[in-house]
Structure formats: C-alpha cells, structure tokens
C-alpha cells in the first residue's frame, strides 16, 4: 500500500481552499450580500478584517483536511471524482449544513438566503474537492 503524499495533500488542499474562498466571496458579497448585511445590522455586528482572515484561513484548512480525507479514502473507495465528491458531501454536512442550521434558528437570515447558501456550498465544496483530488497523487516510493 502506498503512503499519503503530504506535499500533494497540501498542494491539492490549497487549490481546494482557493476554490472555496472564491466561491464564498462571490456568494456572500454578490449573491446573498444584501441578506448578510441586513442580518449583521439586526444583530449589531460589524465584520472586521480579522474575521475575514479567519474565514479565508478556515477555507484553506477545510481544503487541506478534505484532500487529506480523500487521500485516506482512496484505498477503500478508489481514486477519482466519485470519491472526491463523497468527501465534499461529508465536509458540506460538517462545515456548511450543521452551522447553517444554527444560523437558521437565529431567524435573522431569510430562508431563501439559507437555501441558496446550502446549495451553493454543496456545489462549491464538491468542486473544491474535485480540484484538490485532481492534483493529488500517491507517493511512488511508499
């Protein structure tokens, strides 16, 4: 059995994180930006640069963790797009669906924005995992 190629996990994870970062930027500024602005005003929250850095770093961490999961699942599930999408669905459940459920209970974000965010996130993270898996290759010497 070949070992996990850590360099490729990081490289693929960074690519996946970039896909997530771009997707989230478009979603939260262009697609549902007005909804977020209303929600933040209702809660009396002003977003800071530090918060934005936290989200960007988090996207790259999710990307790296996702490609690491992909590398770990390859021996059992097989390499390729199906496994990458399965990892994307797992990440979506943990990092999108679960937290979005909590936001829904606050009642400050329109149901339409929540639904758009959930669907967008599912597509986004699956595309991110496809990109990261595309870069990933096993170690030749393990």
What does this entry show, briefly?
The protein is mostly helical and 142 residues long. It is 82% helix and 0% strand.
Termini separation comes to 7 Å
Poorly predicted runs are none
Structural class: mainly alpha
Helix content: over 70%
Radius of gyration: 17 Å
Tell me the overall shape: elongated
Number of helices: 5
| Percent in strands | under 5%
Biggest sheet record: none
Provide the residue-averaged pLDDT: 93
The ordered H/E elements are HHHHH
State the total count of DSSP E strands: 0
SSE diagram, text form:
Layout (H helix, E strand, L loop, with lengths): L5 H26 L1 H11 L5 H29 L3 H26 L4 H25 L7
Helix pairs in contact: 1-3, 1-5, 3-4, 3-5, 4-5
How would you describe the overall organization of this protein?
It contains five helices and no strands. The chain is mainly α. The protein is elongated. The model has no long low-confidence stretch (mean pLDDT 93).
């Amino acid at each position: 059995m070949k070992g996990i190629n850590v360099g490729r996990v990081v490289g693929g994870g960074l690519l996946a994180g970039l896909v997530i970062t771009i997707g989230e930027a478009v979603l939260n500024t262009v697609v549902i930006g007005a909804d977020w602005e209303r929600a933040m005003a209702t809660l009396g929250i002003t977003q800071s640069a530090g918060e934005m850095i936290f989200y960007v770093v988090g996207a790259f961490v999710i990307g790296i963790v996702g490609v690491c999961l992909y590398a770990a699942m390859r021996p059992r599930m097989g390499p390729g797009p199906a496994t990458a999408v399965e990892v994307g669905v797992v990440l979506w459940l943990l990092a999108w669906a679960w937290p979005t459920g909590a936001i829904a209970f606050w009642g400050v974000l329109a149901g339409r924005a929540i639904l758009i965010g959930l669907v967008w996130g599912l597509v986004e993270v699956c595309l991110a995992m496809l990109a990261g898996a595309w870069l990933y290759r096993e170690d030749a010497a393990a």
